[in-house]
Amino acid sequence: MDPLPNPAPLAAKLRNTLVRYHGIGDGEWRLAKKTKDATVWRKPSEEFSGYLYKAQGVVEDVTNRVVDHIRPGPYRLDWDSLMTSMDILETFEENCCVMHYTTAGQLWNIIAPREFVDFSYTTSYEDGLLTCGISLDYGEVRPNFVRGFNHPCGWFCVPLKDSPGHSLLTGYIQTELRGMLPQSAVDTAMSSTLANFYSDLKKALKT
């Protein structure tokens, strides 16, 4: 088990990685799924043998409120159907924390429940916010869970120029679920999970 990292250099590196992903040209992405709420693309990850997913959609709310629902905190468990528990293990200054969370089984439990320990960082980006994270090898694995690993992930949320009450939400997700899983099942689950994330978030923001 690794000790907890120094938050400042990890936060800076994480932000730079996400900004680099945000600059990847459209031609490098392949469409994975499209719904009324979001479009999901993917490309091979540079971090592991799976995919880096990009999701994008417009959300009817102001940037701060959208990000408050996504980042670690009291809102997330209320609306995210995939997340079954969340505990903040350590809080640093500068909007950094370490959290432990668990996710429900997926695809008729072909994908068993997973647990993650993530470093999370929220910072300003252009006129909006970026909330990003990366998994840490920290703490004991809980019984009946497989420990997954999030390579650099994050959500950019910026107000729409013509409609400041709406936000453009763009996510970059690359999750290594680990365990004995067919890659096709993982790919199906990821695209659907990201599309559902937008529809669940929109419902939560309306309440």
From TrEMBL:
It comes from Notiomystis cincta. Pfam families: START. GO terms for cellular component: cytosol; endoplasmic reticulum. GO terms for biological process: cholesterol import; cholesterol transport involved in cholesterol storage; intracellular cholesterol transport. It comes from the Eukaryota. This is STAR4 protein. One of its GO terms (molecular function) is cholesterol transfer activity. Signal peptide: none annotated.
